[in-house]
Amino acid sequence: MSDLKSSRLIIAKGLLFLLCGILAAGLLIYEHPTVRVGLLLAIAVWCFSRFYYFAFYVVEKYVDDKFRFAGLSSVVVWLWHRRSAAANQIDSGNEVKPGDLNRADKPPADPPAR
């Protein structure tokens, strides 16, 4: 399947996600019309959206600017490799410094060209 390139289709897709979310939330509150359910639903939606922002923006801009995520599964793979690389550094007796974890599984950068 190729990437979606039409801006009209991308907007339509976004609006369909919004409509599905509103319908799902509305049906859930309709089945259990309590303040508690509404509040828990709002907290869940907010937390998942913040995680999505973290996974696709914060990590790329502030943690590992070389990696581009293609989906949530690529985030999981990246986290697994990062964790494994940090464990290998600790097992080998190397000191792990705060900035090392985001460079642990990448080769050293080439020197700048003259």
What labels would you give this structure?
114 residues; mainly alpha; 65% helix; flat
Structure, explained:
This protein is mostly helical. The protein has a domain at 53-107. Helices cover 65% and strands 0% of the residues. The chain has helices at 7-31, 35-63, 72-91.
Helix content: 55-70%
Q: How would a crystallographer describe the biggest sheet?
A: none
Which regions contain 5 or more consecutive residues with pLDDT less than 50?
A: 101-108
Strand content: under 5%
Number of strands: 0
Instruction: Determine the number of helices (DSSP H or I, runs of at least 4 residues).
Output: 3
**Alpha-carbon Rg, integer:** 20 Å
Indicate the overall shape.
flat
Mean pLDDT, nearest integer?
77
Distance between the termini: 42 Å
Structural class: mainly alpha
Concise synopsis of the structure shown:
With 114 residues, this protein is mainly alpha-helical. It is 65% helix and 0% strand. Residues 101-108 have low confidence and may be disordered.
Give the secondary structure arrangement, pairings included.
Layout: H1 7-31, H2 35-63, H3 72-91
